[in-house]
Amino acid sequence: MTTVSAALREAASALEGASDTARLDAELLMAEALGMSRSEMLLTGRDRGVPPEFARLLDRRKQHEPVAYILGRQEFYGREFLVNPQVLIPRGDSETLVDAALRNSPPAARILDLGTGSGALLLTLLAELPKASGTGIDASLGAVSVAAANAARLGVADRAHILHADWNAEGWSENLDRFDLIIANPPYVETGAELAPSVRQFEPASALFAGADGLDDYRSLIPQLSNMLTPNGIILLEIGYAQADQVSQIAGLSGYSAELFRDLAHRPRALLLR
Predict the structure, then answer these.
(1) Are 114 and 184 within 8 A, CB to CB?
(2) Could you tell me the fold of the domain covering 84-273?
(3) Annotated binding residue 118
(4) 116 is in an annotated binding site
(5) pLDDT at 212
(6) CATH 3.40.50.150 domain span(s) along the chain
(7) Any known ligand binding at 77?
(8) 167 is an annotated ligand-binding site residue
(9) In CA terms, which of 212, 223, 264, 265 is 20 to 30 Å from 171?
(10) Does the annotation place 227 within a ligand binding site?
């Protein structure tokens, strides 16, 4: 009988060409196959037999499918979010926006999340701010469904309105209120950029790419937002690490000043506009 411990060693080796986190991926997939948490598996499961399901999960990862899509979930800011290929996988880098929002928003903030995807940004803020309320919009009906499911799962559905809308469509914001915080992680990847196969082949292109220089959505979005803010409202935008100056210039054309926030790797990650 092949034990879990032996299978993990073999799987980590097999995944080296498909993942920078081969051992972790193997452990997460094995835990899923065993129906237990990763920590429980590492403590008590090493000498167990390997479930047949593990080979199927491993094969999917060998084809570069992201672990989050295989498992159907991803952790973000200490909470678990449902994900599928209709939504971008939440990244730890985006937690920078949550930290900045919590430091700069009133407890009862009215929040608008543009391109909400899984709802990770909006729903995390609602969970952290029990008096806050918010609206998340997305141009993808699939994403709207995922975000609504996550709102219910996290117990904030009564304070979260998830809407289908496209900020490039005329009149999309006509029925929206004014907000204390507008937050967005818009597409910002250059169309011709080289991406890992797990990203390019599996994550939604509409949530990634924004023209030849990656700035199309900032140019479209930023000029539209002033009429949607309360008098002291702010805008928080995720940016690519090399885009701070360019997005700040775009914001300046609409009369905003920009404050930069860096992620845990000290890379430029978010701009706060006032």
Answers:
(1) yes
(2) Rossmann fold (3.40.50)
(3) yes
(4) yes
(5) 97
(6) 84-273
(7) no
(8) yes
(9) 212
(10) no
Q: Which residues, 6 or more positions from 274, have their beta carbon under 8 angstroms from its beta carbon?
A: 234, 235, 256, 257, 259
Three-state SS at 70: helix
> pTM for the full model?
0.95
Give the rounded distance of the alpha carbon of 231 from its chain centre.
Answer: 28
21 is in an annotated binding site: no
Encode pLDDT of 8-42 as tens digits: 999 999 999 899 999 999 999 999 999 999 999 99
The CATH T-level fold of domain 4-63 is Helicase, Ruva Protein; domain 3 (1.10.8)
Q: Which residues of 213-250 are buried (b: 16+ CB within 10 A; e: fewer)?
A: ebbbbbeebbeebeebbeeebbbbbbbbeebbebbbeb
C-alpha 158/C-alpha 150 separation (Å) is 12
List, in order, residues 6 or more apart from 53 with CB less than 8 Å away: 32, 33
138 in a known ligand binding site: yes
On whether 115 is known to bind a ligand per the annotation, the reply is yes
